[in-house]
């Protein structure tokens, strides 16, 4: 039940937006996965709070387009654009390290992520490593870079991760994604304990299904499948999720962004994963289900 309280507090206080500038000071914010969906909305919310922005994305054209519009809407802010493929194991992050070292960055939103759908054995090793690299390894690498700088600067600061409701559930045919998000959630919660002495707040966010993103098309999820039709009934807009993230960040260690997510978590706590696994196994056997019930052909 205790996870309902943070949700309700953030939800009920949404009219009074959390002033991150007032709380953390600093001139710069950083957002990964900045050109699309939740990350794009987070960048807009930070620009509204007069943050200059380091924006990171995989696709150059999307980032250029997004930043051009942002600078029209917020002509007083400065933006540094970085194109980085988080799935690339050979990525060096030198330019990012330099920017973080030189600029007064106090709020960091680790938001980039993606999912793939298939039977685990049908993924190539490259596909497996690119998902783990992007959703776990790069997040940890970047946090290591930020923390070294923040500890030196001794400034109060904030590090936020976009995890997912998916990590509360075992999901067949999407095995890597919830596992990666479970890692991120645990990493953030444990970090929030040891980073307290450095004045660094950690928050991890668990959105449910979100509209206005490329997430489902990149995962090649079939919008006509029964699972996706049910899921879409509970979707939130990327803007309202970004509002929730800004509002709750630094106030709680772990946040669910909707009642659906809170109740799913409550349900899983009550029923337990053992029973859920047995139910899934039974359904798969009775209805002869395979990855095509989620995946576009
Ligand atoms: N949408 C949902 O229903 C949902 C629910 C729960 C949690 N989430 C999480 O929310 C976060 C944001 O996703 P979204 O829903 O806003 O989806 P989105 O519209 O697909 O945005 C994802 C962002 O991450 C970037 N990204 C993906 N792979 C990358 C890589 N290898 N290297 C660098 N950047 C990469 C994308 O850049 P490009 O555009 O260049 O590919 C894009 O800017 C993700 O961590 C996702 O797991 C989403």
From TrEMBL:
It comes from the Eukaryota. Pfam families: adh_short. GO terms for molecular function: oxidoreductase activity. Keywords: Oxidoreductase. The keyword Oxidoreductase applies. InterPro entries: NAD(P)-bd_dom_sf, SDR_fam, VLCFA-Steroid_DH. This is Oxidoreductase short chain dehydrogenase/reductase family protein. It comes from Anaeramoeba ignava.
């Amino acid at each position: 039940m205790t996870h309902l309280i943070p949700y309700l507090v953030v939800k009920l206080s949404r009219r009074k937006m959390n002033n991150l500038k007032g709380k953390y000071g600093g001139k710069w914010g950083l957002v990964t996965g900045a050109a699309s969906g939740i990350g794009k909305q987070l960048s807009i919310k930070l620009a509204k709070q007069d943050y200059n922005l380091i924006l990171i994305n995989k696709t150059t054209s999307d980032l250029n387009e997004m930043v051009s519009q942002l600078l029209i809407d917020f002509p007083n802010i400065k933006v540094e654009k970085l194109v980085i493929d988080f799935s690339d194991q050979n990525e060096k992050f030198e330019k990012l390290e330099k920017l973080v070292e030189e600029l007064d960055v106090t709020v960091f939103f680790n938001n980039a992520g993606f999912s793939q759908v298939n039977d685990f054995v049908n993924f190539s090793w490259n596909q497996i490593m690119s998902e783990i690299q992007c959703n776990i390894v790069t997040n940890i690498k970047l946090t290591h870079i930020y923390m070294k700088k923040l500890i030196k600067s001794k400034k109060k600061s904030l590090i936020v991760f976009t995890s997912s409701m998916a990590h509360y559930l075992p999901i067949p045919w999407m095995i890597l994604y919830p596992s990666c998000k479970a890692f991120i959630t645990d990493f953030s919660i444990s970090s929030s304990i040891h980073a307290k002495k450095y004045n660094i707040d950690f928050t991890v966010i668990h959105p449910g299904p979100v509209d206005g993103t490329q997430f489902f098309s990149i995962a090649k999820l079939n919008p006509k499948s029964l699972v996706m039709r049910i899921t879409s009934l509970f979707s939130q807009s990327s803007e309202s999720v970004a509002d929730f993230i800004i509002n709750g960040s630094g106030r709680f260690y772990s946040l669910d962004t909707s009642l659906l997510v809170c109740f799913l978590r409550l349900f899983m706590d009550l029923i337990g994963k053992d029973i859920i696994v047995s139910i899934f196994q039974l359904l798969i056997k009775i209805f002869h289900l395979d990855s095509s019930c989620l995946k576009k052909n």
